[in-house]
Design a protein that fits this description.
Helix 3 (71-83) packs antiparallel against helix 4 (90-119). Helix content is 41%, strand content 30%. The chain is flat and about 70 Å long. A hairpin with a 5-residue loop joins strand 5 and strand 6. The longest helix is centred in the C-terminal third of the chain and has 30 residues, at 90-119. It has 135 residues and is α+β, with helices and mostly antiparallel strands. The termini are close together.
């Protein structure tokens, strides 16, 4: 059964999945340079390596969903411990259950979001993001 990947807004056939847009817009490079120079009459040898990551704006906008930062939970709890003068055992006693619940829900949501992200397409003519449907 064919899948209709035409844009539902403008009807263009110029569409790509977000995963393909993201991967095709990434550039990773490494460059190494050997050099010889003199300092006060002595010869010195050197090697420098530069690593670069580059992404197009289109690829950046099509990036997969990321995980939430753990500092959203940890830093407010540590600040509350200092401000309200709670004993130090409160931090691990509260963070551990929150971390377990958050970690389990985060893995579930990321798996679901990742699946949806892989099935989502973007029209390269008008910019509409959509999920194709079966004909």
């Amino acid at each position: 059964m064919p899948i209709n990947c035409n844009c539902p807004v403008c009807g263009s056939r110029n569409t790509k999945s977000l995963a393909i847009i993201f991967e095709s817009g990434q550039r990773i490079g490494t460059s190494t340079r050997d050099s010889i120079w003199t300092i006060s009459g002595a010869l010195d040898l050197g090697r420098s390596t530069t690593k670069s990551n580059w992404a197009s704006l289109l690829a950046t906008n099509a990036a997969p969903p990321g995980k939430m930062n753990w500092s959203y939970i940890g830093w407010p709890l540590i600040a509350a411990t200092v401000i309200f003068e709670w004993p130090l055992w409160v931090v691990p006693a509260v963070i551990l259950p929150i971390a377990l619940l958050y970690g389990a829900s985060d893995d579930y949501l990321n798996a679901e979001d990742g699946t949806k992200w892989r099935k989502t397409f973007r029209c390269l003519r008008c910019g509409t993001t959509f999920e194709p449907f079966n004909q």
